[in-house]
Amino acid sequence: MKVFKFGGASVNSAEAVRNMVSIVRQEPTTPLLVVVSAMGKTTNLLEKLVPGVVSPNERTTHLSQLSNYHQQIIDELFPHGCSELHNAINGMLQRIAHLSSAVPTSYNYDYDQIVSYGELLSTTIIAAYMKELGINAVWVDVRKLIYTDSTYREGRVEWKQTSDNVQSKLLPLMHNNIVITQGFIAGTADGSTTTLGREGSDYSASILSFCLGAESMTIWKDVAGFLNADPKFFSNTVKIDHLPYNEAIELAYYGASVIHPKTVKPIQNKSINLYIKSFVDPSMPGSTIGNFDSISPQTPLYIFKRNQILISILPKDFSFIAEDNLQTIFAALAHIGIRVNLMQNSALSFSLCIDNNEVLINQLQEILGDHYHLRYNTDLELITIRYYTANVIQQIVGNRQVLLQQRSRITAQLVVSDTMSIAL
Ligand code: ASP
Ligand code: MG
Description:
Helix 3 (56-77) runs antiparallel to helix 4 (83-100). This protein has 2 domains: 2-214, 3-Layer(aba) Sandwich (Carbamate kinase); 301-417, VC0802-like (2-Layer Sandwich). It has helices at residues 14-26, 42-48, 56-77, 83-100, 107-115, 117-132, 159-174, 201-212, 245-254, 264-269, 323-336, 358-368, 390-397; strands spanning 2-6, 32-36, 137-140, 178-182, 185-187, 193-195, 216-221, 226-227, 239-240, 242-244, 273-278, 287-290, 301-315, 340-345, 350-355, 372-386, 401-407, 411-417, 422-423. It has 13 helices and 19 strands. The protein is globular. Strands 3-4-2-1-7-11-12-10 form an 8-stranded mixed β-sheet, with helices on both faces. Helix content is 38%, strand content 25%. The chain is an alpha/beta fold. The structure holds aspartic acid and magnesium ion. Magnesium ion binds at residues 7-8, 37, 199. Magnesium ion (MG) binds at residues 7-8, 37, 199.
């Protein structure tokens, strides 16, 4: 039994869906579990439809964009129409419109209820298309399998219940079938929808691989494998052929976008090989993450995180950033659900580098503003280099201003920019 994961780029058009389905068809191993993300940039679009994020006018524009995009793919895949699919998709689009215009409650909760529709739309369309082609495909609602607690936007997996669900509800369906299900989304035991964090579909595939004891898991990407840098930012990339599990965990944690940070642990636990392969050229060997001693070939590895914000938090009473202050700050971060990419403290201030998200940052200001000054720099880039040399750092940073840096024996991290500091 194998698990395949297809990301948004692999299903972003009718042609992409055809290619993805042909990869699934060529796989001789059944049963096969196929985990799919939302089509293209649908998740970004749905994020704008969370209640309270945009004006009613903008909402209307985004809703029709969402509808047209999926409708066009359906029209191309089903030239003779498919009324059952049409009804299902229309029902979902109506539900999205309804949720989007509701009065905002809690941002994280509202987010999950609406953003989860990206994967429900994509898998419904793809499963219908597979059936149309005569493929023995079964659609499964992953919210009945992967259970999390109610930490919305970053659900924490309830492993025991998830494993029981997989044994009792998924395994019986797998027999000689291709099962298609959603990445990224999950559910609570009492039936509400959660998500696992952005780019969480890899993690979904890994959770299910673990629970099924899969023989391997394959992530199909638009790149040749695990590269030493994101080709969007870097021209001379090197493909890593073999990567030890722990190295992959470190890299993903620092933000290597090829793989979600939580993905590797579960499959490492059961020594399941993880293949990263190209959906553009499935015959190429790709990369393998597994029980290796070191990366090969040996080369520096670069991770770039754009649109970062560096917040300095200073107690208004000029007290030291002692345990009490840190406790308050971390409690606020955890409460809001802010993920810290890099942090550093001095005697009087605490600095953290996070992804820029206005809604969450305003919440932080609201909670901490009475007792702390918050200053911030925007438009920053967080650069992480594994196996760095002074030369390599110099090349990457150039003459940009370094606002903060941390180095260990293996890893250098730098926050760089040239913008001015503004007080909130
Ligand atoms: N669709 C979700 C996202 O774009 C999950 C994923 O693609 O992994 O973040
Ligand atoms: Mg994606």
